[in-house]
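Subgroup meeting minutes
Present: P.N., E.W., G.H.
Scribe: E.W.

1. P.N. recapped why we're keeping a running log of single-chain structure predictions: easier to compare across weeks, and new members can see raw inputs and outputs side by side.
2. G.H. added today's entry (329 aa).
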Amino acid sequence: MNIALIVILVFGLFILLSSFFTVKQQTAVVIERFGKFLSIRQSGLQLKIPIIDRIAGRVNLKIQQLDVIIETKTKDNVFVKLKVSVQFMVIKETVYDAFYKLEYPHDQITSYVFDVVRAEVPKLKLDDVFERKDDIAIAVKRELNEAMTTYGYTIINTLVTDIDPDIQVKNAMNRINAADREKTVAEFEAEASRIRIVAKAEAEAESKRLQGQGIANQRREIAKGLVESVDVLNRVGINSQEASALIVVTQHYDTLQAIGADTNSNLILLPNSPQAGSDMLNNMIASFSASNQVGELMKKRNEKDHRSKNHKIENHSSTDHSDIQDKEE
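Output recorded in log:
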């Protein structure tokens, strides 16, 4: 009798304890009675009728993430692998639809992602896939939202987290990028070289200009010095020809002294006698004299031709005038 009572008490205690259950935070529990939906219980301590009611399942209300890897072809016939991350959750008010209408939500989401990506990516070239990955993600999210809302799910976000072309294509892209950068470097180096050349040419031109001005100023001062030297010599009774000869001889010796000061010079001045300077001066004076004579002769000839031409014009005018008088008479 005592044993039977103990069994009954243990059984009753088991039944009592099985009537209570707990539901974790961000979780919903579906309760069925004799296989039929009864209610949805939220987080906390809950009560059910033992044997009659049972927990059909628990639904996670947290945000979940599903990573889907798809291999597809681009418009320029390049095969790429895309990793699409889908963040989704069950709507709290539609736990019934999420539990009873869709048995494998991950498979369903994967199918829709495959369908959208394989419809969008073949429209784009490989470079456009990288640039417009956000557009692909938006298209996936839009399609998933329309489909999964019916089953009690909402899509929080979709992200294209990885685009992985074939290894040969990646190597080719890297070579193109490297070649483009080398081209840019070459352009910059060429521009820098051009700037250096232009700057050097401008500096040389400026140097030549200043050098020319210096030489011109030097010669101008030398000419002034020569004029002053001739004037001084004229005042002491030396005529211009003698003064010029003296200056030429002096410059001749100055030149010889400058040449002799450089021990490494291979220059030979021929002739180098003092008479050479006097001969050069005499030749210059003779040339100037001959040039002046030729100029005077040409001037006289031009004046004679001019007078002859004027005389012919006057004779022609008088003849025409006399013809006119004869006609009038």
